[in-house]
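Treating backbone geometry as a discrete language has practical consequences that deserve illustration. Part of our work consisted of pairing the sequence of a single chain with a tokenised description of its backbone. What the numbers capture is local backbone geometry rather than side-chain detail. For completeness, the protein is quoted in full, as a sequence line and a line of structure tokens:
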Amino acid sequence: MTFTDYIFETSSRLDKTAVIIDGKEMSYKDIYSQVEKVKAALKNTKGDSILLISENSSFFIQCYFGIIKSGSICVPVNPSISSQEIKYIMDCLDIKLVFIQEKYKKKIEKVISSEVEIYTENEIEDLPYMQDEDYQIISENDTAVMIFTSGSTSKPKGVMLTHGNLKHNTNSIIEYLKLTESERAEVVLPFYYCYGTSLLHTHFKVGGSLVLNNRFMFPQTVIEDINKYKCTSFAGVPSTYQILLRMTNLKKCKLPSLRYITQAGGKLANVFIEELMDTLKGTQIYIMYGQTEATSRLSYLAPCDIKEKIGSIGKGIPGTELKVLNKEGLPVKPGKVGEVVAKGKNIMKGYFNSKEETDEVLRNGYLYTGDLATIDEDGYIYIVSREKNIIKSGGNRTSPKEIEDVIVQIPDVVECAVIGVYDELLGEAIKSFVVLKSDSINMDTKYIRDFCRDRLASYKVPKYIEFLKKLPKNSSGKILIHKLKEMEKISI
């Protein structure tokens, strides 16, 4: 049984609404017939990687589940990434087939060969419906999805998630959120992001429904949708809630249908958690923690504990063991700092074609998250800092090295360093420290941003740029990132 079969086990023939997009409803039966079309078009592709480039849409859903049902590996990517980034992924995986929305087609035409087959929503519509009874023999350990995530180097890493990983994480989330067929989620998180796909997985498994909102640039529409469609839940990263609290009339609105909200994708400051509690009285608030390498979720803080344990990520989700270990591999005592590690059937198979990086994080049966944390006397975990040098800005994970490698291509730039700095809306904003040649006279922040904008996804372009005469370094010439962060705190 594939993960798709598991998801649609009881719902494939239901006339019940599964998705609402721009006011239009689609039933489970309609969606599943489209899934079958995609699956039928992918004969003899078992084990092949297939790229999926799409915003949240019925096209994404039918292609995502259709690819997985065929026994192929679905590789969903952010439509805003550059053509060169897409080419890197395609070359890395030797991709021969792409499902892409028509409006993004031009982005890939310059970087693909004539051998690559392309399907848009137009081609999908013309595919004949064929219910294929020739089910693929799929193992729980076969890779179903590969999500590329920024690592400690400038090159993204392909996280291999198996059919079993997806099933177990889905079951765990359904259990602790107590999801039922009556659930209806307002969705702004993209499905190419593991937090977003977890909403798709869990709600489709229980027979609930999703309202897709691709207009978060107008955040007031979220509030309007929740009331219009009587949504029972909403999910967001820190910047999502900071924008809703500070840039909409949320505090003056009543949301009677909203049973619960969830927050993950980085630490939300306690002041915003308190504002949410004051604003959404009667609505349960789940603070959660996870990683792509863990399929999505690793821990949650139950609503009943949020006041007493504010700032905590809680404890492991059902079926996942979460510990904080010191450098000797022993559990830390309360108040002491160690690294968060996890064990469970939701932990990834590994990084694609990268045994060395896989072995760095999968050790002794545990996933080493790279996050430093402490625990209290009751075993609740509190993240202290991120050991990995990754910037989380607005829910997007970005490698500083990738941005640095672009900026130093400017002839007048001698060197640069990129860090994440506190930002009220984004959680972290990207800041670049730049050292120029002594005779450089025409270089300014606008030029650097424009240069980055032409070569990077928009969310990777530095929000702040500061020029320095030199970067702080140790005796071996290594840039001291912590010194830059200290300088930033002093300037504030």
Summary: Residues 192 and 475 are 42 Å apart (CA to CA). Residues 392-491 form a domain with the GMP Synthetase; Chain A, domain 3 fold (CATH 3.30.300.30). Residues 163-177 form the longest helix (15 residues).
